[in-house]
Design a protein that fits this description.
Strand content: 15-25%
CATH class of the largest domain: Mainly Alpha
Structural class: alpha+beta
Order of helices and strands: HHHHHHEEEEEEEHHHEE
Largest sheet: 4 strands, antiparallel
Number of strands: 9
Radius of gyration: 50 Å
Number of helices: 9
Number of domains: 3
Distance between the termini: 92 Å
Shape: rod-shaped
CATH superfamily of the largest domain: Tetratricopeptide repeat domain
Strand order of the largest sheet: 3-2-5-6
């Protein structure tokens, strides 16, 4: 079982004081010699780590013991780190910390010997809580190596198909390979449970292609846009003709009005006068119709030409109506 909160307190100060001159059975220095300031700092961090461990502050205890052990390596500090990690549920990391203590096998001073004994006693319960997952990748062509991570930790290709220790709980497996779609899978594993996951890779064919009709580039390819221009020009021509008709008939009506002013004094009683009067009304009606047709034609033509697509973005379009001595109409550039 995991060490309880009532576990034996680590003899951090005594262990650090004695570690300077300690050597392992192989003769190499086990606890590196550091400056007095380093030793004091590691001792202070170790004591704070023990207090955090006793107070149930597992994450803080892990941080303090890790920092202390990196400054001055000692079995007692590694044991505190292993206990904090085990309490956090990081049983894979805790088991490896216990194994480091056992592999180093330092038995002097007595505090280190006690740390070694306790590591051996606590390790089996921690290892029993580890889950294991076997990851297999399928669907890859020969010679294509996948990149696999388990909980964001890289997994070597040689380790695929082999049970891998993981912390119990949610495990995320991500697989990618050149030319294949990346895959992410999640599996939940309880304490001490084994799981297997086969990831089938699919060839990446790229994003879905959506058919898009290109904008027309010629009159033959764009009947809707190109037909507006000739219709607009035709409407302008009709409008110009209407203005011309209105101008001519209006002029004739004005002249006929002058004749009638002379003939119809005091009244238009003669057959000639009646004929001229009828002609005057007809010319007036034609003049009015001509000007109406001209206005409608010019307005419609301008609108259609402005809506028609331009063949040259730099070209400018314009229409100018005109009335002159020889007639009336519209001129423009498109």
């Amino acid at each position: 079982m995991l060490p309880s909160r009532a576990h034996r307190r680590l003899a951090v100060p005594a262990a650090l004081a004695a570690a300077v001159a300690v050597s392992s059975p192989s003769g190499r220095a086990w606890a590196q010699a550091g400056s007095d300031a380093d030793k004091a700092t590691a001792r202070e961090l170790g004591q704070q780590g023990q207090e955090a461990l006793d107070g149930g502050k597992w994450s803080r205890a892990e941080d303090l013991f890790r920092r202390a052990d990196s400054i001055f390596h000692a079995a007692t500090l590694t044991l505190g780190l292993a206990r904090a990690e085990a309490r956090e549920g990081k049983v894979v990391e805790a088991a490896e910390a216990y194994h480091r203590i056992i592999a180093e096998n330092v038995t002097s001073p007595p505090a280190f010997a006690r740390a070694l004994e306790e590591a051996r006693a606590e390790l089996p319960a921690v290892e029993a809580k580890r889950a294991r997952i076997t990851v297999t990748v399928a669907g890859l062509r020969a010679g294509v190596a996948p990149q696999v991570t388990v909980n964001e930790a890289p997994v070597r290709v040689e380790a695929l198909g082999v049970p891998r220790p993981v912390n119990p709980g949610r495990t995320v497996v991500a697989v990618s390979a050149a030319g294949y779609r990346p895959v992410s899978r999640t599996i939940d594993l309880g304490e001490g449970r084994d799981g297997a996951l086969t990831v089938a890779m699919e060839v990446d064919v790229g994003p879905a292609v959506v058919a898009v009709t290109a904008p027309p580039t010629s009159a033959a390819a764009a009947p809707t846009g190109s037909i507006l221009k000739p219709i607009g020009i035709g409407a302008l021509a009709v409008g110009g003709a209407g203005l011309l008709l209105g101008g001519i008939t209006g002029g004739l009506a004005i002249a006929r009005h002058g004749d009638l002013t002379t003939e119809c004094k005091p009244t238009c009683n003669t057959s000639s006068s009646q004929s001229d009067l009828s002609s005057y009304h007809t010319l007036g009606a034609l003049s009015t119709a001509g000007f109406v047709i001209g206005a409608v034609g010019l307005g419609s033509g301008l609108t259609l030409l402005l809506l028609a697509p331009r063949s040259d973005a730099k070209a400018s379009a314009g229409v100018w109506p005109y009335v002159g001595p020889s007639g009336a109409g519209a001129a423009g550039r498109f």
